[in-house]
Amino acid sequence: MNSKDLLTGSRYGQGMRLTITAAFLLFALPAAAQDISGPARAADGDSLDLSGISVRLFGVDAPELAQNCERGGAPWPCGKQAASKLATLVAGTSVVCEQKDIDDYGRIVATCRAGSIDLGGAMVDAGLAVALPHFTDRYLAAEAAAREARRGLWGGSFQ
Q1: CB-hemisphere CA count at 13 Å for 91?
Q2: Could you give the count of Cα atoms lying within 13 Å of 66 in the half-sphere of its Cβ?
Q3: Residue 85 in contact with residue 126, Cβ under 8 Å?
Q4: β-sheet bridge partners, residue 118
Q5: pLDDT, tens digit (0-9, with 9 covering 90-100), for 111-141
Q6: How far apart are CA 44 and CA 62, in angstroms?
Q7: Helix, strand or coil, per DSSP, at residue 66
Q8: DSSP 8-state class, residue 132
Q9: What share of the chain is helix, strand, coil (3-state, %, to 5)?
């Protein structure tokens, strides 16, 4: 076979073009995301431990576990409160997470649900996490509502 066969549409050339195109498409597709489910423990306000697998909630950011915020001129343990809220949301239920990415620390980044509750959305709605619009606009309305009602972080100041 010569290069002219590939270009002229001979039966062999058409088959080769299809094979090459299919190979390029396979390599262009992202790796399949995995779903993870089971009992979960809150590691902090935006991270879970699912039977030893670290999962970071997609599209939100909560205070660090040891972080303090300010409310009414006094410090309050916003990081611990965020972790406590997430722990309450996952207590006694199976959590299902749909992987979106892997972060720089090797954690799975995923949207997670406890029953019908979107955990990222619930944390933002409670005012204990902020939306990350550069990843998704999914939680912007919940953040606006929490800010308006001065829930959680929005009732004081935080970094």
Answers
A1: 7
A2: 0
A3: yes
A4: 113
A5: 999 999 999 999 999 999 999 999 999 999 9
A6: 8
A7: coil
A8: -
A9: 35, 30, 35
pLDDT exceeds 50 at position 29: no
Amino acid at 37: S
Q: Phi and psi for 9 in degrees, rounded to 5?
A: 95, 20
Q: How many CB atoms lie within 10 A of CB 63?
A: 25
Is beta strand 94-102 parallel, antiparallel or unpaired with respect to 108-114? Answer: antiparallel
Tokens read off for 10: 């001979």
Is a pLDDT exceeding 90 seen at residue 2? no
pTM of the model as a whole: 0.79
Residue 107's CB: how many other CB atoms inside 10 A? 16
Identity at 18, one-letter amino acid code: L
Beta bridge partners of 130: 61
Residue that the structure tokens 């619930």 belong to: 122
Q: Is 96 helix (H, G, I), strand (E, B) or coil?
A: strand
Spatial distance between the Cα atoms of 92 and 4, rounded to a whole number of angstroms: 67
Cα–Cα distance for residue pair 74/68, rounded to 1 Å: 10
pLDDT band at 15 (very low <50, low <70, confident <90, very high): very low
